[in-house]
Amino acid sequence: MSALLDQLTRRQLLWHGDSQQLAYQAVASGYPELDQQLAGGLPATGLIDIQTDAGIGELRLLLPYLQQQQQHSQRLLVFIAPPAELSADMLAGAGLDLSQLLIITPGQQAAATANVAARHKKSAEKNQSAKKFSVQQQALWAAEQCLQSGCCATVLLWPAAISLAQARRLQLAAEQGAASMVVFRNASQTLSLPVNLSIRLQPDPLGLQVTVLKRKGSWPAAPFQVNMQQKWPALCLSGTSGEPMRRAG
């Protein structure tokens, strides 16, 4: 049993709640309540799992973090398979440099992924192989390639589903590229993944209710409120926390 536990720990599939050596470097989230619960902010590198329903404010929560990630590293932000069209005005208004932002829609923009890989000397044969994948496989492949390239500060992915093995590959790629990988999952997908941070989001009249499910070097935390009223007063006053995505009509 001891040998099995040692093996799981080495593979980062198991860790001790009080282990300081596994603590991550934090980047301020822009929300004091969240920073306090996460000992300074969101992970600068590694895999971040966000369990949430779509359109309740999950991307809006990350905008200050993404702005810092992009500004400090001067590297790309990559959005893969977002569930709706992203609003350029909203992203620019949050301080993001749109010239350093890439949106990949698997099945429609395979060439975009190939261009990122080509910029960092990936083989043409490997780029062509992505076209043979399913849409889900293309999304995961694109995320892994972007992370490994070293040119991306943060990659955000909305997969239809993700397995333990796929999450582990993304975590290793994020470590290799010194990047953070954000995976948005439907709240019904409860499979525990090998991640640096896992949180669950629920709507709240003043912003979001956040539950920390897993964090390296710490224990899960009770649900708490993140107040978005200062940053998004109109949305909070109306009792919603909408996404920076352009809706039909």
How is this structure best described in words?
This is Recombinase RecA. The protein is of the alpha/beta class and 249 residues long. The chain has one domain (25-237): P-loop containing nucleotide triphosphate hydrolases (Rossmann fold, 3-Layer(aba) Sandwich). Helices cover 35% and strands 21% of the residues. It has nine helices and ten strands. The protein has helices spanning 2-10, 32-37, 58-73, 88-93, 110-119, 124-129, 135-149, 164-176, 233-237, and strands at 26-27, 42-43, 46-51, 76-80, 101-104, 152-157, 180-185, 197-204, 207-215, 224-227. An eight-stranded mixed β-sheet has the order 5-4-6-7-3-8-9-10, sandwiched between helices. Strands 1-2 form a two-stranded antiparallel ribbon. Strand 9 and strand 10 form a beta hairpin. Helix 5 runs parallel beside helix 7 (135-149) and helix 7 packs parallel to helix 8. The longest helix is centred in the N-terminal third of the chain and has 16 residues, at 58-73. It is globular and about 45 Å long.
